[in-house]
Design a protein that fits this description.
Helix content: over 70%
Shape: globular
Strand content: under 5%
Largest sheet: none
Number of strands: 0
Number of helices: 12
Oligomer: single chain
Structural class: mainly alpha
Length: 292
């Protein structure tokens, strides 16, 4: 193995493991803390971490296209709010797999927003992914699986996640990649409080132990984002994406071992279809990039 790729491989593996830890922590911590409190603390720690990294490497924070970056950051914040909520309402593995629908939604949104052409392969990708989603969330009363609002919230989170990626394509090459993460963290910290008031909830971070736990969990999520971004410097984006699917595997194992979430063969097959299909567009895009 090329030694130059070792840092990238380590970072690419560590990133989904960090996100797996974050997802597991969400299930535990939201038993005592509001989701909005967690988003607020994650945003605060994210702003601090990204600011320190940007200062260390002398990178800008706000970027040049502040308006577009703000939209991307706010969209990502809403996506996290939806996905985090879904984790607390439905089996963990289902919430993680539903998030992996985002490449499918990105195909549709790219055509609508950026005017990109949908080719037959893209149509097949969309059809397979949606079929996998139906298999994943189809109710099975005997197994204790029912269709819930959490599934719709998770799907909305996936749509918003893909929207952020589609809009990010409009950013120029002068952006370092830290700017979108900074704006995302900024809106998590700024938007959590009014969102909690809108839904008649509190932040739920009254005790010092809750603050410390939320900050630690937020740090894990922020560091996971940074490691995933940094890994692309050494490895192809598709490779990082494939390794990133470890997050789904970790979520599935946690669902089974830690939370005893109900699972059926049909749901597993649907999940596998979604993850495999999610990775195919990345592979095709990477092949096209290398061919240029």
């Amino acid at each position: 193995m090329n030694k130059a790729k070792n840092p990238g491989l380590i970072l690419a593996v560590a990133s989904p493991l960090a996100f797996t830890g974050f997802n597991i922590g969400v299930r535990f911590i939201t038993e005592h803390m509001s989701i909005f409190g967690l988003l607020f603390l994650r945003g605060c720690i994210g702003v601090v971490v990204i600011s320190l990294v940007a200062r260390l490497f002398k990178r800008p924070l706000w970027g040049r296209n502040v308006k577009l970056l703000s939209i991307i950051g706010f969209t990502a914040f809403l996506s996290t709010a939806c996905t985090t909520t879904a984790i607390t309402l439905i089996p963990l593995y289902q919430a993680m797999v539903i998030l992996y629908l985002f490449p499918t939604f990105a195909i549709i949104l790219s055509a609508v927003i950026n005017g990109e052409k949908i080719i037959p392969r893209d149509g097949l990708t969309v059809a397979l992914a949606l079929t996998g989603c139906l298999l994943l969330i189809w109710p099975d009363e005997t197994a204790g699986l029912t269709f819930q609002a959490g599934h719709l919230i998770g799907i909305l989170g996936s749509v918003l996640y893909s929207l952020g990626y589609v809009l990010a394509r409009r950013l120029g090459d002068d952006n370092s990649g830290l700017e979108p993460i900074f704006h995302y963290s900024f809106y998590c910290a700024l938007g959590a409080i009014p969102l909690s008031l809108l839904f008649g909830d509190s932040l739920g971070i009254d005790a010092p132990v809750e603050v410390l736990a939320g900050l630690a969990l937020g740090a894990v999520g922020s560091i996971g984002q940074l490691m995933g971004y940094a890994a692309v410097r050494w490895l192809p984006a598709f490779t990082v994406g494939v390794i990133g699917s470890l997050e789904v595997l970790g979520g599935a194992l946690a669902s089974w071992l830690l939370f005893s979430d109900p699972m059926t063969i049909r749901a597993v097959i649907g999940g596998v279809i979604i993850v495999v299909v999610a990775l195919c567009p990345r592979r095709a895009a990477e092949a096209e990039r290398q061919a240029e």
